[in-house]
Amino acid sequence: MWNVWKIWLCFGAVLLSCSGYTWPLPDQLSAAQQRELKELQEDVETEISDICCNNGLKRCCVETKKSLAERKIEEWKELIDSLKELKSTPDEEKAMKWLEEYNEELRQRQAKSAEANWAQSTNITDENAAKVVDVTMELTKWSLKKMEEGKKFDTSGFSDDVKRQFGMITKSGSSSDEEKTRKVAEIGTELEKIYSTSTACLPSGTCLKLDPDLEGILAKSRDYDRLTWAWLSWRDAVGPPMKDKYAEWVALMNEGAQENGYADKGVIWRGAYEMPNDTLEEMVDGVWEKVKPLYTQLHAYVRRKLSETYGEDKVLTTGHIPAHLFGNMWAQQWNNIYDIVVPFPDQPAIDVSDTMVEQGYDPLRMFKTAEAFFVSIGLRPMPQTFWDKSMITRPDDREVVCHGSAWDFYHLPGDTDVRIKMCTKVNQEDLQTIHHEMGHIEYFLTYEDQKTLYRGGANPGFHEAVGDTIALSVNTPGHLKKIGLLQNIEGNQGTEFQINELLKMALSKVAFLPFGLLIDKWRWRVFSGDITPDKFNTEWWNLRMKYQGIKPPVERTDEDFDPGAKYHIPSGTPYIRYFFSFVAQFQFQQALCEEAGHDGPLHTCDIYQSKKAGAKLKNMLSMGESKPWPEAMKAITGQDKLDPSAILKYFEPLEKWLREQNKNEELGWE
Ligand code: KAF
Ligand code: ZN
């Protein structure tokens, strides 16, 4: 209804504003209505200069407007009267007051919850775990109470913004049964503890941690059996102790969701993307179909190289590839086997890990390097408290969660408290991860003025994409040269060098896509009951085989629980956000590069020091979660969709080259 008025008012406004009439803005209207009217007036006043008669004479123009305005002024007044009747209730006022208090209390409670979680993640003890459970209970109980209060407001006539906030408050997936809620929190801390403290022990008695030991073996060893050992030991260490707890966890989370009217927890997870009729899966499937041909080319090329390295008896040149040969514990990114697959080995090297060590980089210098980039485009430096309170290396006196993360302590602007927790190693991959985590921090800092409810990403995928977008610039040879990490390259390099460069990037970005997609495909089906606990592992591998074209190096059974070997499963962190991010970051990069005036192929673009690109990014980040994500996408790229054409364009020269290399290969694995 309000929209109809809007169009009307808009028309009236054009005629009125330049003719000297003051706009009646009676105070019987709600504050929100008045604000909307004011906004309309401002919009219209900027448009007004366009209205002029055809002959362009100023006097004629003014008179035309004036007489039109006089004719319309009576209608305008009638409109205002009917508007007063239509909605002059103090309800929205009351609701806005309630929201203001809600947001402030939420801020304080989330700050408290973050402190308890930080304490546990940087020092895993039973005592700290118990505090996490307590504070989670407190926050859940409060949220449920507030949800009930919130539901009492009839929001139907309220402004979109107020409606949006109520919409967020009145969605919950938590059970009102305290015991169930407590159990969910307890299992969560137990699973994360298993993941973060498990080790694999050698016959000698030495026990190896995931980070850095087992991950290091997967990255560096080229000994088939040693790789098998590390791959298998990690899964044997964490999977079986997790399996039953995980099944119980899923059931409890589903009960919470169902109590609130949702079919299962997966519906709630997907809800973060605000897709009409729960169509997120359709959207990501559509994107995957478009990038799959590129992935298939990369897969066939890498399979051939691995077969040459390990022998045809270990790696066939057709079908699925054993999962432990990709330089990564989960075969999610393949950059660590760049040395095996490098197309043109005689071209100058582009991996800077060794150079970083030679130049005496340490974690702090890596963080400062990342910060300098963000600052160069006009984003904020890390505050002093960041340096004082972050954990950037693994401490040796206690157990911690080493998987990287970025933390917002819901500070008031001016009293900033944001931190990163990471067990940094000196190599290019971790330099990339630092940019990833710092991207989260820049988002926190840029939306700190938003209401607490809106202190989040436009969707979770946006949050994941910020730092990765920046790292696309950082990892160009051009930029690495600027910061002194690449020395032996001259100006413009030839095609062979570019193919090396693109292939290295594809090992990180293209290889990841099916992995990013399948994790939540598995969990969505687990939540919906389509995959039952007795099929957890079988179905996990069915998806790994289908999407990634890889297979387990040894036989697996349903006693095993291989999903648990990946951090986001025991920590309960949704994963489709990364699939979204890996596609969106190329859209962002394309838009920012255009803003920066880059010319040349997209993969050579470095937005370093471009204040224009930075302003464009900042503008999007400052929106936080205040609008549905297509609007944020539009603010930065001009389009409102997740669109793989940017990533495809980026890798176009590589895809062409791969097709040529693979012309005699049997593509695929089905
Ligand atoms: C991304 C980029 C490069 C490589 C790989 C990835 C995918 C994924 C992975 O498999 O490693 N990356 C991460 O998990 C990075 C950690 C994080 O920054 O995404 C972290 C995950 C996390 C950890 C604990 C609780 C919840 C989530 N996310 C954040 O710290 C975060 C996310 C949104 C807002 C604020 C902080
Ligand atoms: Zn992240």
Automatic annotation (TrEMBL):
Catalytic reaction equation(s):
substance P + H2O = substance P(1-9) + L-Leu-L-Met-NH2; Leu-enkephalin + H2O = L-tyrosylglycylglycine + L-phenylalanyl-L-leucine; goralatide + H2O = N-acetyl-L-seryl-L-aspartate + L-lysyl-L-proline; Release of a C-terminal dipeptide, oligopeptide-|-Xaa-Yaa, when Xaa is not Pro, and Yaa is neither Asp nor Glu. Thus, conversion of angiotensin I to angiotensin II, with increase in vasoconstrictor activity, but no action on angiotensin II
Binding of Zn(2+) 1, residues: H436, H440, E464
Listed Gene3D superfamilies: 1.10.1370.30
Name any Gene Ontology BP term.
proteolysis
Positions annotated to bind chloride: Y273, R577
Q: Does the keyword Iron-sulfur apply?
A: no
What are the record's GO terms for cellular component?
A: membrane
Q: What is this protein called?
A: Angiotensin-converting enzyme
Organism per entry? Branchiostoma floridae (Florida lancelet)
Its lineage opens with:
Eukaryota, Metazoa, Chordata, Cephalochordata, Leptocardii
What is the gene name?
LOC118403314
